[in-house]
Amino acid sequence: MTDYIKRIMENNTIPGHLKMVLHDEMYHGIEVSNLAVMIAEEMGENHAFCKDLSVAGMLHDIGKLKLADYIFLEEDTLVIEQMKYVRQHSLYSYKILKEAGYNNNILNAVFYHHENYDGSGYPDNLKGDKIPWMARILRTCDVFAALTSNRSYRKAFDIKQAVEIMIEEVSDYDMKVFLTFQRILHNGTFKGIQELRSHVNMLQQEQLRLFERVAVQDRKIYGTGM
What we know:
The two termini are 33 Å apart. The chain has helices at 3-9, 16-42, 47-59, 68-71, 79-86, 89-100, 104-111, 133-147, 159-168, 175-186, 193-198, 202-216. With 226 residues, the chain is an all-alpha fold.
């Protein structure tokens, strides 16, 4: 655990039942951010693009803090009810970042990071090149990070298993992004899951402050007029 995240986790003004969600989402953001930048750099994107993508990767799921009471329901809660709330998290992430003054490239990447390339995603069922480019990169990284992380209902898949699962659903991903992702896993630049989660640069650390601010403030469900 980085010193900065450790300090956040020791903040007594953060509700205890929220700390597990906060911990998981900060580390998930770090992993997605680092992998997304690796892909973007491999594809020749410029510094400004990679900077915005790094921020979007860090914060894409911050809206889950606003929905924690709904997402992490009792095990006997209907899955369909859980999904109704889960699918709102990209909207709340967007609203939080918009209020905080982030630029449109970051906002759109965050809002659309669950769109699938074949049009089967959400929130707007965008398809192909209609999905913002940054969001297409985040989609691949988000799924990989989720599969290789422990969940309350399963253990983390190893890298080989995660990739096999992703290949079974390859129509979800932009093929240019997916092939670059595969290349990174096998060209010697990828140092493993733990490396993705443990490296935090100054830009990423700045974004952790927003996680902390959201966690300690009133966690009411925002309306659409936020």
